[in-house]
Amino acid sequence: MNSILITGGAGFIGSHVVRLFVEKYPHYHIFNLDSLTYAGNLENLKDIEGKPNYTFIKADIIDESTLNALFKTYRFESIIHLAAESHVDRSIEDPLLFVKTNIIGTINLLNAAKKNWKGNFINKLFYHVSTDEVYGTLGETGLFTETTAYNPNSPYSASKASSDHFVRAYGETYGLPYVITNCSNNYGQNQFPEKLIPLFINNIINNKELPVYGDGNYTRDWLYVKDHAIAIDLVFHKGKQGNTYNIGGLNEWKNIDLVQLLCQQMDVALGRKKGISEKLITFVKDRPGHDLRYAIDASKIKNELGWTPSVTFEEGLKETIYWYLNNQIWLNNVTSGAYQSYYKKQYCN
Ligand code: NAD
Ligand code: TYD
User: Which listed residue, 8, 38, 226, 302, has the most CB atoms within 10 A of its CB?
Assistant: First the structure.
């Protein structure tokens, strides 16, 4: 049985990747390693927790000796590494935490793989999941390609850029087989309500202000999370070792336009009068170092592996809205406790 370690599997994207692999590949054993930070939630995987080819391991990638012990016990053959601190605003508050998890944690995993695979790299793979934010910002035109120079602007993107460099360096220096994917903004079920779309859905439900940073004229390229999981499956099985693939939604939205669309769809979903939710929009102080625009050229993954997004933004956003409306217990559970003090500090209310 192929033994695959997925890190960060209790988080947003990781939980979709874990589910896809557990269900699609009964002959693989999936080990989900997660330290369960505020962003990790085993509720996300309730439906598959009893499957015979699934094991959850609570561990921290900062802890090198535990990683080595786990490699010895379970003999992982491949790693899909998603565990990370992932929120830009939190990285502005506490950059060192991002250095620890995203850089040192990744190096610990690389070392554990290198040590335990002992130079026998046949059928081994270190798959590093990264972000398009490593490329920095675009102006009004142009797209990020796999050869765009790294130019990260936030502590989050700087830590992810560094981890990408280390993965590549282990490939070049020690021959460790790897692939890296750099993906655009994801949205969908189970995303922690600190990121734009779930935060605003939650605030609309609760009639709270919608804090749009600056003038709202910032652009992001949105991809439905299940399409990202499908792309990861494809790159894991068919991607060329030592390669990078950009993954994107081909779906650019200015924040303010997206928020207006979300408000309209939420009014319909909640049976509210048209225009009610838009009244909650409040322009607030801008994020420092705010990147103007991200947009992906996904032609390499399309041409080499045949991947394109399968879910339209209209469908994906609708699915997402109804998921949050139907899962308000999940929402209430993750927005209680420590999240309340984070929210007060970040938005001063
Ligand atoms: P998330 O914050 O929802 O989940 C991160 C998971 O990692 C959580 O389950 C958390 O408990 C776990 N984790 C954090 N620190 C850990 C540690 N020290 N040891 C073990 N586990 C730890 O993040 P996400 O949005 O699902 O992102 C997953 C990956 O995808 C990240 O590497 C991120 O950089 C990348 N990515 C995210 C997006 C996006 O839009 N969300 C886009 C492109 C790439
Ligand atoms: P976010 O979901 O944090 O993702 P990222 O910063 O990784 O792109 O933010 C998406 C966009 O929405 C980004 O331009 C910042 C903006 N934004 C707001 O305007 N208000 C908010 O409260 C948040 C969380 C984000």
Answer: 8
pLDDT tens digits, one per residue of 20-66: 999 999 999 999 999 999 999 999 999 999 999 999 999 999 999 99
The reply to whether 133 belongs to the active site is yes
For the range 168-173, what are the long-range contacts, defined as Cβ-Cβ under 8 Å and sequence gap of 24 or more?
A: 170/110, 170/114, 170/126, 171/241, 171/242
CA distance 106 to 348: 34
Mutate to test the pocket of ligand 1, among 86, 128, 182, 301 (most ligand atoms within 8 A of CB): 86
What is the CA(195)–ligand 2 centre distance, in A? 6
In a domain, 172, yes or no: yes
Q: Please check whether residue 279 lies inside any domain of the structure.
A: no
Residue at 100 is within a domain: yes
151: nearest Cα among 135, 162, 166 = 135
257 catalytic per annotation: no
Q: Does the model's pTM come out above 0.70? A: yes
